[in-house]
Amino acid sequence: MTSKIQPCDAGIIRAFKMHYRRRFYRKILEGYEVGQSDSGKINVLDAINLTIAAWTIDVRKETIANCFRHCKIRSASDVARNLDESTFDKETQDLETMINQCGYRNKIDIDNLMNYAGENEACSEVQSLEDIVGTIIENNAEDDDEDDTVSLEPVTRKEALMASNTLHNFKIQYKNTTPELLDVIRKVRDELQIDLNFKEKQTTIESHFNRV
Q1: How far is CA 165 from CA 10, 117, 131, 160, 186, in A?
Q2: Selected residue with higher pLDDT from 173 and 83
Q3: DSSP output for 146-193
Q4: 20 to 30 A from 76, CA-CA: which of 57, 150, 177, 208?
């Protein structure tokens, strides 16, 4: 019922879930390619980055607008349009291909993956304020028992410059490279080169604080 009256249920959440999972399995395949150990696991930082990319890059404005039109929520000047299912179907096929490439023995069906049984039950239950507070306190207590700290290896400016140069050279040789993509890489390199002094040692975070 809500899929007919609420834009998020009409397709926005569905699109986001599909794009997030597509990026998730793409990351797994990337781990296999570079020989990463435990490539099937992600940490909290990985999940946050995948979420941001799926929402800000993949979920298109047209998809959101069409979902609102589908629910009869539109401005006076809007003309009714049908949801664009062709693009979504193609991206769903790409997701299914990635899952097949992961080589799972008992892989989940793509329809069940997009509409996992019971994943919305917690959102559909009506809880009192006391229950919500109790759940938060309980979850915080469990988090204290587990170390979820994500540590990143420090990257120097020199390493970043070398990496950007390697990426630039790779994309020049790549047959499907677009001028727009190369411009993005060049902008990244420009940012790295701003106020760069090759004669000075790179500062650390401690250098910005006075010793007591």
Answers
A1: 43, 46, 54, 9, 9
A2: 173
A3: S----------HHHHHHHHHHHHHHHHH-TT--HHHHHHHHHHHHHHH
A4: 57
